[in-house]
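During the no-cost extension, the postdoctoral fellow (Dr. R.K.) reprocessed legacy sequence entries with the updated structure-token encoder. One reprocessed record is reproduced below for audit purposes.
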Amino acid sequence: MEITDPTPAEVRVREAFALGEGVDFRESPDDDPRAGGSWGPERTVRADVLRALLIGGPPRDGEIAGLKLWGARITGRLDLMYGTVEHPVRLRSCHFDETPNLYGAQIRALVLSDSVLPGLTAGTLRVELVLRITCSRITGPVRLAGAQISGAFFANGAELGPPPAPGGTPPPDTPDAPDPEAAAEPVLQLNHAVIGTDVWAVGLVAHGQVRLNGATVGGLVNLDDAELNAPGAIALHAETLSVGTDLRAMRLRARGTLNLSGARIPRHVNLAYARLSHPGATALRASSCVIGELWLREAAPIEGTVNLRRSQLDLLHVPAEVWPGQVKLDGLGYQRLAPHLPADQRLPLLEREAAGYLPQSYEQLAAAYRTVGDEAAARTVQLARLRRHRRTLPPYARLWGHLQDVTVGYGFRPMRAAGWLLVLLLAGALAFALHRPPALKSDEAPDFNPVFYTLDLLLPIIGFGQETAFAPQGWYQWLSYLLVATGWVLVTTVAAGITRALSRQ
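Re-encoded structure tokens follow.
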């Protein structure tokens, strides 16, 4: 494409391109590209001129050509759709009047740092090195679905999407009202993209959804200090995201759902010091995930539901005060919990399960305590499970459960059973010592012993020959019935507790 009547600014760009040199149009390093719409012709370059250089511009003999601009106003649409660009493109602190179209293009490197754009259309883009939109202000959607970037993608410090109006959304018939379809479109689209190394988005500010569905990232995704604002919607849509190492989001502030459903993250999901807010809806959804460690250390109390159903984790590091009022933990599996807390501080979380009583959640918590050798906490959890289960039973079964709980703690409090046996033994021995029951056959009866007679009544299996030889009368007969009944309760519940202990081993 031949460009006629180039302006002096365009001549400078063309000459520098052939040598791979840069052209700096800025009047000072502090020039704000947001004011680029008012820049004059001395720093204005037509997009068609850049396209002609990138697609067919010849380098000077012995030089490596490249486009390197600072502080330029680029008018018209930079259309490189399906084009192959053999040169790196670096357009820093530039102002674009129209959205560049790089759909299906192949390019060595693309740098748009510190620039202002109305959007970026670059689906299925192929980049050999890196793509940078660092500290850029892009008011429209950044479309990178299906892109393949051999190196890293940098969006640290960028601000994407139209910020909300101070007084709320303008009425639909006003000139400043956003298009409803555009407002619903994610402001950053990396769905099904393949990133060779990292996604670096420290301090990213997104006024709308960030989409990473089905993306594959060879290294880490870094969202430290990012702000994701999508109230009432999904702030981060990252279903089936695959990450090589970590997902970092320390000090993240998210308004809307953080959706990691089906993600595969072998090391850490680090949400330390984060603030997650989606009141009345799901704030964090990490269901069916495989994650090494999930950290919410020092995070603010989550506003909204947390859904971790069917996920598998090695470590779950969430302080008790961070959990919200409702959780969904059905099928969640983990090896260890941090910080290590007494069982009484962990158990209230299981009462917040949206599906009601889930035996597996109690078994999983007890297993985690056994993993670190805290058998006492594990028994406390098992006892809480039985008490919670009791509430689901009919009245007669609840009565029997209360009796087992009071007497021996469902077998998890064996010393309580020993105490009850000792109390009953002393009471029975004293009562029968003061009022000896008559013998059934006086000439054949052994010498009466109140202690062993009481033991005969309490222990249904062991016999000392006292119970069959003597027959109490009056209220002492009712006392003997009470001792027999309570003895059966104690023995059967202790046996059940021993059976549970052996089965755990």
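The longest helix spans residues 475-504. The longest strand covers residues 227-237. The remaining legacy entries will be reprocessed before the final report is submitted.
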